[in-house]
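User: Can you help me understand a structure? I only have the sequence.
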Amino acid sequence: MNKTAVNLENKIKNKKSIIGVIGMGYVGLPLVKTFLNKGFGVVGFDIDEKKVLMLNKGKSYIKHVTAEELKGFLNKKKFQATADFAALGRVDVIIICVPTPLDAHNNPDLSFVLKTTETISKNLRKGQLVILESTTYPGTTEEEVLPLLEAGGLKVGKDFFLAYSPERENPGDKVYTTEKIPKVVGGVTPECSRVAKALYDQIIKKTVPVSSPKVAEATKIMENVFRSVNIAMVNEMKMIFDRMGIDVWEVIQAASTKPFGFMPFFPGPGYGGHCIPVDPFYLAWKAKEVDHPTKFIELAGEINIFMPYYVVTKTIEALNENGKSIKGAKILILGLAYKEDIDDQRESPSLKIISLLKKHGAEVSYNDPYVPQASGYRDYPGLVLESVELTGSILKASDAVVIVTAHSDYDFDWIAKNASLIIDTRNAIKKKMKNVVKA
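Assistant: Let's start by predicting it. Here is the structure, written out as tokens:
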């Protein structure tokens, strides 16, 4: 192992290294918190100057990173946020946590990763460790990131170190927090792997070294494609069973009694979050390079994308059965976040459902105790709403209430008693009621 690697590893183990995290979102900020809790100094980088200003004032915009925690770190002078990327030169470790979305044609959009890497390259110095955590297709670290970093003349494994370690953050999970989730790590060279593992060993209970960045990248893809395919299967079965007059939720409950060979997945209005809606299409795109079809994986993605349309169709049908038209109907959406008890709206099915309802001429409002305002969405630039107060009068005035996210704050028995028509996409209301339609 070369001297540069030894020096950096010792600096990490002694917690003398400064950690730089690029992207102060739902992945980056919890990671910052974890490093700070373990005694490291951290610089948080983001192009959004509003976020930077908030963080430096001790204000949080993410529920599971509190303002009190931020103020404590700031008071100890262990943390600073900045939009000045020239400061990358003074950190020892650079961790990339930027978005990897899809473009308009469902192809990978690596623009955030590539622009970030170009910026790092301009400030890269000898002895630094760079880690990509953003979810992506196998090959990104070595084929896209590495050439940009070596463009300045420094050599990987000798002058600087590069690894991939997929984020596994589960927003809102109080049990499996960042430090409790095993960390897969794959370096470009053995020295890269060793230094990267040494870093995560300081903050994570268990690290899982693998032979290459490609294996680490493929690991994250497999985890999420597994979920995507199974969610699609149960969503399709829900639609089939609905036509047969069978309650899919009862079927799942009964099937779950089998002690082997079955793992329950649950239907819904469409999946959300950054990873699961995106990863199948990342793999499908990359698979074309090796001339292998991904019909099964792509079909799963298509089924899950279709689910908001299904929910809207069920809403229209239910209104028609009540003698009402969707045009001009007052629709209340319950839940804007993509899953319960968090404020994360990335790829939330609620956004698509609201957009579709509005196109049909409905008057749409929403309530979400975690999302007071809805605006600034890349795919829905015209969507600007504020959460309405959830009252009995609001429920009674709505022609239909669509349960998209089953926040624990909601009293569903009370909602069922006050709403004339409910479209329940989450089986939030367990009792069979005349005014409740499962969708």
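Now, to help you interpret it: The longest strand covers residues 18-22. The two ends are 58 Å apart (CA to CA). Let me know which part you'd like to focus on.
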